[in-house]
Write a structure and sequence with these properties.
- Chain B: Keywords: Glycosyltransferase, Transferase.
- Chain B: One of its GO terms (molecular function) is glycosyltransferase activity.
- Chain B: InterPro entries: PRTase-like, PRTase_dom, PyrR_bifunctional.
- Chain B: This is Bifunctional pyr operon transcriptional regulator/uracil phosphoribosyltransferase PyrR.
- The complex is a heterodimer of chains A (322) and B (170).
- Chain A is an alpha/beta fold.
- Chain A is built from eleven helices and nine strands.
- Chain A folds into two domains: 145 residues, Rossmann fold, CATH 3.40.50.1370; 152 residues, Rossmann fold (3-Layer(aba) Sandwich), CATH 3.40.50.1370.
- Chain A has a five-stranded parallel beta sheet. Chain A has a four-stranded parallel beta sheet with strand order 2-1-3-4, sandwiched between helices.
- Chain A is globular, with a radius of gyration of 20 Å.
- The mean pLDDT of chain B is 89.
- In chain B, the strands form two sheets. In chain B, strands 2-1-3-4-5 form a five-stranded parallel beta sheet. A two-stranded antiparallel sheet of chain B has the order 6-7.
- Chain B starts with 7 loop residues before the first helix and ends with a strand.
- Chain B has 170 residues and is α/β, with parallel strands linked by helices.
- Chains A and B meet through α1 and α11 of A and α3, β3 and α4 of B.
Chain lengths: 322, 170
């Protein structure tokens, strides 16, 4: 855990929401709130990271996540390189050699997406001091900026976390997003965090995450203030974890009718991309309860906040000039 | 050990009088007061009311425009900037508590120009302190103070407003 925090408790890397103190998470949310104002200006940029170089290092392709990180870095005036390692061979170079080569190009930050859990942490252990690593999703482990944009969206709609019941519905077992959301929601003091899924899609240690487990959608959604649907990977059907898409939708698919038991002002979220008619019905995804597109917009401000915080870590504080 | 600092109310009277003259020159209807966080915002709000200007004053937090992020890190709390009107073709009057190195004003100028192209930008400060690192000067200043390099003077507020010293002499 100390890998991502410096001696003063400030963020050096952003690898996971697990174990981060509430004050730090709130600081990220407050900073993101300030950055959301940047979008209202005629020039939608600030010069905060001018002259810094951000490298998007994607071992697993994800156009949407890469694009929002790229836009966030550009809104901060950083120079951005996209290295798509999934489609280019490393030509015998080891990962660490490749990192050192990229560092030799004066990289200040790596945004890492990788199919293996722990990849971002491995890279963070091998970069030079002063180079920051942001985890843009690693295996089943963590997707911390996605979780932060989700809690940012929740805070904007609901205010305080303490009175809230948040229900996360779907494939918890294989979801790095759900894991990061649960850690962030618990750290922020959320009243009750529920997971709703069939037994085959729950991790073995699920109670240890600090959640209430429901296998039935009606009981899982009852009086919920926030409902988060998760993406269902189609290969789970072939892996015999689920009988069929239609059976899944019948038991766990979100729709206006199924949400009748939730709080009347419940909001509906999804990290995207959506399998319409599998995890969520189109009328609900596009309806007034849905904040799914807001999540995408908020993702830019949240990533700007995290990037500026990790590159703004200074060894010693100097007084503000006037 | 601290020097005797002037009281704020008489300085505010002087600043308001200087701004009255500036508003008369520029045309009141074209002018927008914009305070720089934190002291400048308190002053802009007080002056806006006293001068009977329409609308609401603007506020800038220049944290995202600072040139020393790598040295001093992100501030603990950044308040969103708000400019109440379009700045295009308006006279923006920046208000701050202390003008010293000029770096804060430089950052504020950069931010204002990201909102549009004002007709002119003027600067009003409560305290003008020698030590400029940039070619920036105040159009209106209520007082001038000379302090040792290691000391800072800043405005505390919002009520009551008072000047305080921070840091010791070198």
């Amino acid at each position: 855990m100390s890998l991502q925090l410096d001696a003063d408790g400030r963020l050096r890397h952003f690898l996971t929401t697990e174990g981060l103190p509430r004050a730090l998470l709130t600081h990220i949310l407050d900073t993101a709130e300030s950055f959301s104002g940047v979008i209202g200006k005629s020039v939608k940029k600030v010069p905060l990271l001018r002259g810094r170089t951000v490298i998007n290092l994607f071992f697993e392709s994800s156009t949407r996540t890469r694009t929002t990180f790229e836009l966030a870095a550009k809104r901060l005036s950083a120079d951005v390189l996209n290295v798509n390692v999934a489609t280019t061979t490393i030509k015998g170079e080891s990962l660490v050699d490749m990192l050192h080569n990229l560092e030799a190009m004066q990289a200040d930050m790596f945004v890492v997406r990788h199919a293996e859990s722990g990849a971002a942490e491995y890279i963070a252990r091998h970069v030079q001091p002063g180079v920051a690593v942001l985890n843009a999703g690693d295996g089943w482990h963590a997707h911390p900026t996605q979780a932060m944009l989700d809690v940012f969206t929740i805070r904007r709609h609901k205010g305080a976390f303490e009175p809230l019941t948040v229900s996360i519905v779907g494939d918890i077992r294989h979801s790095r997003v759900a894991r990061s959301q649960i850690h962030a929601l618990n750290a922020l003091g959320t009243g009750e965090v529920r997971v709703v899924a069939p037994r085959t899609l729950l991790p073995r240690d699920v109670e240890g995450l600090g959640v209430r487990v429901h296998h039935d959608l009606d009981s899982g959604l009852r009086d919920a203030d926030v409902v988060i649907g998760l993406r269902l990977q189609r290969e789970r059907m072939q892996g015999a974890l689920l009988p069929s898409e239609s059976e899944y939708y019948r038991r766990y698919g979100l729709s206006e009718a199924r949400l009748a038991v939730a709080h009347p002002e419940a909001i509906v979220m999804h990290p995207g991309p959506i399998n319409r008619g599998v995890e969520i019905d189109s009328d609900l995804a596009d309806g007034p309860r849905s904040v799914i597109l807001e999540q995408v917009t908020n993702g830019i401000a949240v990533r700007m906040a995290v990037m500026s915080l990790v590159l703004g870590v200074a060894p010693e504080s100097t007084p503000e000039a006037t | 050990m601290s020097a005797k600092l002037p009281d704020v109310p008489p300085l505010l009277d002087r600043l308001a009088a200087g701004l009255e003259a500036l508003l008369a020159d520029e045309g009141r209807g074209r002018c927008t007061l914009v305070g720089i966080h934190s002291g400048g915002v308190w002053l802009a709000e007080a002056l806006h009311q006293r001068l009977g200007l329409a609308g609401a004053p603007g506020a800038l937090d220049i944290a995202f425009y600072r040139d020393d992020l790598a040295r001093s890190g992100m501030q603990a709390r950044v308040r969103p900037s708000r400019l109440p009107l379009t700045v295009d073709d308006r006279v923006v009057i920046l208000v701050d508590d202390v003008l010293y190195t000029g770096r804060t004003v430089r950052a504020a100028l950069n931010e204002v120009f990201d909102y549009g192209r004002p007709a002119a930008v003027r600067l009003a400060v409560l305290v003008d302190r020698p030590g400029r690192e940039l070619p920036i000067a105040a159009d209106v200043a209520a007082t001038r103070l000379e302090l040792p390099a290691g000391q800072r003077v800043k405005l505390q507020g919002p009520a009551p407003l008072r000047l305080v010293l921070e840091g010791g002499a070198p």
